[in-house]
Amino acid sequence: MTLNCQEVLDEIHREIQPLIGRGTIPDYIPPLAKVSGKKFGMALQTTDGQSCEIGDAAERFSIQSISKLFSLTLAFRLVGTSLWKRVGREPSGTPFNSLVQLEYERGIPRNPFINAGALVITDIILEHVDDPQKTYLSFLQQITGIPSVKISKTVYQAEIKSGHRNRALANLLKDFGNLRHNVEDVLSFYFFQCAVMMNCTELAMASLFLANNGEAPVAGEVVSQRHAKRINAVMLTCGTYDAAGDFAYRVGLPGKSGVGGGIVAVVPGRMSLCVWSPALNSAGNSYAGTKALELFTTKTRLSVF
Amino acid sequence: MTLNCQEVLDEIHREIQPLIGRGTIPDYIPPLAKVSGKKFGMALQTTDGQSCEIGDAAERFSIQSISKLFSLTLAFRLVGTSLWKRVGREPSGTPFNSLVQLEYERGIPRNPFINAGALVITDIILEHVDDPQKTYLSFLQQITGIPSVKISKTVYQAEIKSGHRNRALANLLKDFGNLRHNVEDVLSFYFFQCAVMMNCTELAMASLFLANNGEAPVAGEVVSQRHAKRINAVMLTCGTYDAAGDFAYRVGLPGKSGVGGGIVAVVPGRMSLCVWSPALNSAGNSYAGTKALELFTTKTRLSVF
Amino acid sequence: MTLNCQEVLDEIHREIQPLIGRGTIPDYIPPLAKVSGKKFGMALQTTDGQSCEIGDAAERFSIQSISKLFSLTLAFRLVGTSLWKRVGREPSGTPFNSLVQLEYERGIPRNPFINAGALVITDIILEHVDDPQKTYLSFLQQITGIPSVKISKTVYQAEIKSGHRNRALANLLKDFGNLRHNVEDVLSFYFFQCAVMMNCTELAMASLFLANNGEAPVAGEVVSQRHAKRINAVMLTCGTYDAAGDFAYRVGLPGKSGVGGGIVAVVPGRMSLCVWSPALNSAGNSYAGTKALELFTTKTRLSVF
Amino acid sequence: MTLNCQEVLDEIHREIQPLIGRGTIPDYIPPLAKVSGKKFGMALQTTDGQSCEIGDAAERFSIQSISKLFSLTLAFRLVGTSLWKRVGREPSGTPFNSLVQLEYERGIPRNPFINAGALVITDIILEHVDDPQKTYLSFLQQITGIPSVKISKTVYQAEIKSGHRNRALANLLKDFGNLRHNVEDVLSFYFFQCAVMMNCTELAMASLFLANNGEAPVAGEVVSQRHAKRINAVMLTCGTYDAAGDFAYRVGLPGKSGVGGGIVAVVPGRMSLCVWSPALNSAGNSYAGTKALELFTTKTRLSVF
């Protein structure tokens, strides 16, 4: 099936209009609260080189937890599957920032896509690179081919200031012996990752390797084919907080969302997508974004199921 | 890619030998404890009519929780998506028979594949059919084309006798108002479903509609294409208890397991599989069976990811 | 200090008037829902033979969980401290009928005054007496000296019919191996205990042994002095569900409440009291009853603290 | 009954010998791990001026959580019962440093004697005094009459360094809005309190006001009679972590323990006691200390029950 991707995105753009702005803009990170709920963008990159976009696809936003996808990839490159000694790969069944499960399970986070898991991944990266912030940005610049990718210092500062819950998680991990670095160093690098600014087109490009057997168009092999599939599997079961089951049911693609309103999704072998709209549903995923992806797989039948 | 399925199964059969028997035979249902841990069978049905099998693929075993897949399908046929009012579709993050989550979430089970969820599905079926046991067996006979499919009365009686945990779950559901029928009627029909005896070939045939846009080869449309995809999605995120993430990571296919040692898996658009080996890993899924499916997707690259 | 007990009760009766009826009549056991919320009675028995009462102290009501006090006493007589092998003596920190803690703590109930604990106590009694219902009533008749003490068959039937949560608890206990008798036999005897009808004067008399070194005025030694103190200790830390801390803080006496609106309290060495008023506070204890006991210890300074 | 207190203590000293050293010395605060497990001391102060001591009663140790008793008293003096808006007074049913309950109950700690509760009490004190460390020490010096009471800087530094769990609790409280001061300021003052060094005689003297209607022998009224009773009530239901029920059952007195091996206990109207022995039972209370107090109430029948 050849897909006229621009036509599909245009159709979605028309149909999604009434839903844009539904949901809530999170207010616990002040700079995020200032973004207009009316924004909506979507971009798509195919493995054979097509690329389409609509709406605000060129406007950068705070990638927030989508960064967990790139951190996991980086950690895979650095230490391979040994990372699973310190973090699980099961859905959590609880909100992304809960401490309950972490205490019951004695400091082993359920998966790398909840905050506790990403803190452990961050600790792993810190152990293996000299200049972690630079390494992280270079990696994103490489896989997107866009040298201007950078963080928002305003968001970074705001996260450091308001991150009591993440600070509680990090201290609990430390107490259980599952952080090797200083708590504040881990948090600081974690918040740095969350504060990266990218747009839909850049994020679709950055995740194309996951649809392409591990290879990025410009940068070459990011991870092996096997690892790319595995990252997709973890995304599908754990990528959208405690709405992973619903996302699989409605959208049917591996995806990773962030509270900045972005969602990245992958059609294995075919393409990567990114949608952005800041107002969130009750599970913390973009309301219009989730709906747009649902429209996409309904129209194209590209669900993995 | 054309697949010589018999060759693949034969290869798996050779490689899996050292692992057969690893794990534990569950002892809480006495008739199940008597089955030899040395059994191993595997069968495969493609949507274009091929069929292959190895080992003990023709020996019937207790399908146990694999029945939850057929119960959910039946309920979908009877009431459609309205069933989601009474049961969720999120991974549970807890063992299959836990009461903790059910109490916290006030009687709405996490998904139809944990025991509490299957009890609610059972209650829904009871509401819409006159002779539930007959309906259930007829349905299985239809989609397999095998009129001799039936239950083991020994297993059925043993489950009724030992099912204290399920009785606790059913009473808690009743207390929360999420069972409409008498607790013992629901349990009795639930245990009936678990006590069905089928072999790998029959189970692969019975689940082929999930790989075939909802259509069974002989019986015609079982559910719509859309519903078939959705059942696959729920299987992938919730089908193997609290090891769903690991199963997705290793195998990469929607699958549903039972404590009888069987696992059904689906390659959307291509084929359905069933593997059986009674000794279970710590998550309650067949040890050799899970490994055999992992070998299968590694060899064939047929993971959905 | 000599106490003019009638004067004190009369004063309380006057002051409590505006509070009678505040709170909620529980509706899950239909016969209890029919009792008027305007009822209020209080009775007191001293170890030196005084006895006073006010209001509806002579009207019998459903003793409900106050029966747990007498069941624990009976079990102490039958098996002594060996009962602590099967039930703990720590406050639960959760509602009286929660299954969560019981599952986490693998079938050992926190204490004999939550429902799960009382079911284990019931199982222990069943093991040691031939005609448990008769034994139970005889025991109450003996320690009160009132041969007419009996159950309400209407309440008994209603409990059997609506007791899904207790049935869930009993099945979970059975699953963990902490019930030796048939689940329905245990439940039936448990509901029998809850269905006993007594009035404030009878209940004050029935618990006088706890204030009197284990001796009942007519019946003689009920338990040893040491055991009487220990039962008082368990009452103080566990007797009023998850409001035990608040009850100790406000009232300062060992006490045991029931959802029928009764509360028994003990002033060690001095006297026993019973208050009754059917409308309950949010923790399931009589609203006016708790306040009346608080007034009592404020006026008399008889708190144990 | 006149009590020859020295005789009683001497008897206990003889009988307790075989138990001294049983249990475990906690190792998570290095300076505490260096104290000899063979230490045992006990002291008693009566409201009519008697005072007795045995063993190592004059050797100072780290009072640790016993400080929570004095912090609660200080907070009562500063803000009265309004402190209950920010902390409960129910037993927790979970270990002293658990985050689970705190998350479920949205940042309101169960009681002032678990770590989370004491952090809130610490925050309250910080709000009302200018020089909190000085105020705290002055208060202890006043109620003991011993001007040399001070902290161990070694313990203080060690706590600051190793307190990841407490840091997690404090950040979670901050996240829920139940800390008004800077997290590190609250922790620093909290660790200061834990690091106070006192001996048995000093601690018995310091808690005598709780047995004496709120009045300290030298310092006069510490709190009102009513508040003294209430503090005793909270101690009895919550003072010994999740062994409060067992402590009430065995000892039958309001008591507060610390991981330094000390336990303070109160006989209302009569006397205060302190026992010290560093090796702890599995609930974190001094093994020999608990036994010694049990012997004391068995011998003297001074249990409140």
CATH superfamily of chain A: DD-peptidase/beta-lactamase superfamily
Order of helices and strands of chain A: HHEEEHHHHEHHHEHHEEHHEEEH
User: Helix coverage percent of residues of chain A?
Assistant: 40-55%
Chains forming the largest contact: A-B, 32 and 32 residues
Percent strand of chain A? 5-15%
Give the count of structural domains of chain A.
1
Number of helices of chain A: 14
Q: Termini of chain A, distance in Å? A: 17 Å
Strand order of the largest sheet of chain A: 2-1-10-9-8
Overall number of strands of chain A: 10
Q: Structural class of the secondary elements of chain A?
A: alpha+beta
Q: What characterizes the major β-sheet of chain A?
A: 5 strands, antiparallel
CATH-scheme architecture of chain A:
3-Layer(aba) Sandwich
Radius of gyration of chain A: 18 Å
From the structure provided, what is the oligomeric state, counting identical versus distinct chains?
homotetramer
Overall CATH class of chain A: Alpha Beta
Mean pLDDT of chain A: 94
Overall outline of chain A: globular
